[in-house]
Specification:
It contains eleven helices and 13 strands. By secondary structure, it is α/β, with parallel strands linked by helices. Helix 1 packs parallel to helix 2.
Length: 366
């Protein structure tokens, strides 16, 4: 990604200026602004002329220097303000939202990672449960017009029917991380019902791309291939993911933010659809609509890097699922957008960024 540029009048590829409802006197409040998805969404909104107040604790789950580098780019923009705080600390969060009075809140901060949740479960109760409750309370008190929050494809847990649909039951999580994301959906729904808070949950499917998270498989594979270290390929390579490029995720999130859900008076409580509600609450998948094989992803990385990976095949890890694949018909019908970046294109862009950053780091150390 290049340095930020001042926005120019524009339209989206589909022809309409979808960001218009987000421009105004109050900024969009965006938690997790130093994170992978938060950074890209903030950058997109800023380019569209939207003011953003970013919130992040900049914790050490992975290298804080990468988070600070993302923030350095965002700080170049005059419409961006940043507040360093932990969403688990209720009073500072409440005070911040009270001061800025955002009409739209985009909640992307969370403790991520399935494997990390096996060894550090309390990190998830603090960030994903207590922190999310604080967000809901602050939105209720501030009369926020729309809360959009990050869920995850992990909520589908032990489901085997593919593609995954928001109309599917998701009552069998297989990791604590997934359980906290399911809990977020239930908590948000209760606030939508009790207090009329319009809220939308977005289930992300394996997001990848430049400025990505170093704990993700594609990033770890790239590092290992460059360093000549073996890569661990779980379930002996028999895994598939709906890899979704970050630019597609960012636009999908921003578009959803402009459309607050409304109560559905025709909701059938005798045959309830888990993805909809009588309350102003909706759920959407954001994925690339493709089930890509893990070994194909590795082959693309090898081709782009120009080095063959040394592979160590391992059994399935606890908390992992064999395959993910998103049904996004509801999202496309709702906001007129669907991700479509091919995996080979997205990984090529990632490797270009990865090489540039690696070369820059090497030069700095030298």
């Amino acid at each position: 990604m290049s340095d930020l540029i001042d926005p120019q009048p524009h339209t989206s590829p589909l022809g309409e200026d979808w960001a218009a409802p987000l421009r105004g006197s109050s900024p969009v409040a965006l938690t997790g602004a130093a994170g992978f998805i938060g950074f890209h969404v903030a950058e997109l909104l800023l380019r569209r002329g939207v003011s953003v107040v970013g919130i992040d604790s900049v914790n050490a789950y992975y290298d804080p220097a990468l988070k600070e580098a993302r923030l350095d780019l965002l700080r170049q923009h005059p419409r961006f303000a940043f507040e360093k705080l932990d969403i688990a600390d209720r009073a500072p969060l409440t005070d911040l939202l009270s001061a800025h009075r955002p009409r739209h809140v985009l909640h992307l901060a969370a403790q991520a990672g399935v494997r990390h949740s096996l060894y550090h479960p309390h990190d998830y109760s603090s960030a994903n449960l207590v922190g999310f409750l604080n967000i809901l309370e602050a939105c209720r008190a501030g009369e926020v017009e729309h809360l959009v929050y990050a869920s995850s494809s992990s909520v589908y847990g032990g489901n085997r029917k593919l593609p995954f649909s928001v109309s599917d039951s998701v009552d069998h999580p297989i990791s604590l991380y997934a359980a906290t994301k399911k809990a977020n959906e239930l908590m948000a729904h209760s606030y939508s019902h009790l207090y009329g808070l319009p809220a939308t949950g977005l289930r992300f499917f394996t997001v990848y791309g430049p400025w990505g998270r170093p704990d993700m498989a594609y990033f770890k594979f790239a590092q290992a291939i460059y360093d000549g270290r073996p890569i661990k390929v779980f379930n002996h390579g028999q895994m598939a993911r709906d890899f979704t490029y970050i630019d597609d995720i960012a636009e999908g999130v921003a578009r959803v933010l402009t459309r607050a859900p409304k109560p559905n008076p025709d909701f059938d409580r005798l045959n309830p659809n888990p993805g909809a509600s009588w309350a102003p609450h909706r759920l959407f998948n954001i994925g690339n609509r493709r089930k890509e094989q893990l070994l194909d992803m590795i082959e693309i990385l090898e081709r782009e890097i120009g080095i063959e990976a040394v592979k160590e095949f391992e059994p399935m890890q606890p908390g992992d699922v064999e395959a993910t694949w998103a049904d996004i018909d509801d999202l496309e019908a709702y906001v007129g957008f669907r991700p479509d970046t091919p995996l080979a294109v997205g990984l090529s862009r990632f490797v270009t960024w990865f090489k540039d950053r690696r070369d820059s780091d090497d030069a700095a150390e030298g």
